[in-house]
Amino acid sequence: MFNYYCRLALLSILGAKVHSILTMLTIALGIAACTITLTLVNSMSSNPIAHKSGQLFRVQLDNWDPNQAAISPDLPPEFVTWTDARNVVQARQAKRQSASAITWGMVNPAEQGLTPFLALMRVTSKDFFPMFDVPFLYGAGWDENAEQNNDYVVVLSKETNQRVFHGANSVGQTLTMLGATFTVVGVLNDWHLSPKFYDMSYGAFSDPEEMYLPLELKAVFELPHGGITSCWKAVESERYDAFMHSECTNFQLWVELDNPQQKSQFADYLTQYVQQQKSLGRFPRPLNNRLLNVAQWLEYKQVVKQDVQIMFWLSIMFLLVCLINAASLLSAKLHTKHSEIGLRRALGANFSQIVMQYSLEVVFIGLCGGLIGIILALVGLQGVASLYAGYGRLIELDIPIALSVILLAVMGTIIAGLVPVYTACRPVLATQLKQ
Would you call 80 helix, strand, or coil by DSSP? Predict the structure, then answer.
């Protein structure tokens, strides 16, 4: 019997091709718009390291102008100075601590026969890799000795290793860069935290850097200051070391703390540190240290902008409008079926059998609309990726979201389609047949 109802539903759809296609396209447009925005919002608002979100903390220290807060009304800078970054990292008061900054430099892989290129780099501490669960394809990060001795070591991204060493295990190989010879100690595997919470200087969804160097090499090679640099008073001179020892902020500082007790102890250390620096003439503002975990930091940075949230609600409303229009089209179509329904009732079909037949027709229309909607959503996400390069990592279709939207659309059309069927079954059979 079920196969018979399916055949009747398909014949009914094919018998009114234009009407059925219009209904499918209406449903598809609503599903596509809603799926695109929901996928983007879900990707942008996700916690990329949820299992450690409560253990990783962004450190903020208020070394700013005594007469004006760094961020209104009374928030400290988001970055720290070179002096504070080094002092906190070297104090080793947390389970792990990492200061880092974006920079760049020339790579001259002459021995590989390649053209020199400018590479985006990150200077950082050795704890950066275990702290953020950075996956390695070959080797590992540098050790304590390399960090203390300012060894010329480098960790390559997978893409850079493919470019320079053709994807082979390059650990132990040398690479000419920054006018010196560096030894490769590790190669990252595919790694892209989204949002890139640990450093959103170039956007919350920017690509990772191509190379990673020990933090102290920034001063050794006088590397450029990438990312966001802020100063509340003029630097004493144009010399590189004058900037490095100024009150200009440019470094991200993160610590890993396993439990509330460790957090409390580290907060006490920061208080003591700032008090010590005050005695040296620094930190003229009142004590204003902050430790924000990953979730709090993402909320503070408002990764999901207000316009995206508005788009989200507009897409939900658009889906509802599309469902209402689709329901109207189905209602108009089923309204013409009163005579057919009356004839089937006269031949012995009961209410549940009639509902089964027309519900299957609505389900087929809804599923076809959902399939078309997913295709349109894929095209739309590709369009977003081409318009906004920084969102390239967000274009992957979220299957659970897509299935949920399709289910909502199908359920809505079924409910809407049952209304005219119920109305058609209410009149007295004799009156319905006479009409």
Answer: strand
Whole-number Cα distances in Å, 345 to 279, 337, 394, 426: 94, 12, 53, 11
Euclidean distance between CA atoms 106 and 150, whole angstroms: 19
Q: How far is CA 255 from CA 7, 44, 263, 288, in A?
A: 64, 23, 10, 17
Mean pLDDT of 76-101: 96
Question: What distance in Å separates the CA atoms of residue 305 and residue 313, rounded to the nearest whole number?
Answer: 13
Axis crossing angle, helix 399-425 with helix 351-387, rounded to the nearest 10 = 150
CA atoms within 13 A on the CB side of 3: 0
| H-run or E-run covering 394 | none
CB atoms within 10 A of CB 298: 22
Contact 146, 238 (CB under 8 A): no
Give the DSSP letter of residue 163: H
- Tell me the two tokens of residue 383: 């369009």
pLDDT for the residue 390: 52
CA–CA distance from 375 to each of 106, 336, 372 (Å)? 43, 32, 5
Separation CA 395–CA 399 (nearest Å): 12
- Which tokens go with 109? 């892989």
Q: Nearest-CA neighbor of 401 among 1, 30, 3, 42? A: 42
Torsion, CA 162, CA 167, CA 173, CA 178, rounded to 10: 10
CB distance 160 to 210 below 8 Å: yes
- Residues pairing with 262 in the sheet: none
Identify the CA nearest to 214 among candidates 170, 155, 133, 297.
155
Distance (Å, whole) CA 285 – CA 245: 19
**Alpha-carbon distances of 183 from 136, 155, 175, 228, 290, rounded to whole Å:** 16, 9, 6, 29, 37
* Paired sense of beta strands 252-256 and 96-107, if any: antiparallel
pLDDT tens-digit readout, 205-226:
788 999 999 999 999 999 999 9
Q: Give the pLDDT mean for 389-409.
A: 66
Instruction: Using only the alpha carbons of the chain, give its radius of gyration.
Output: 31
Name every residue whose Cβ is closer than 8 Å to that of residue 268 and which is 6 or more positions away in sequence.
none
| pLDDT band for position 32 (cuts 50, 70, 90) | confident
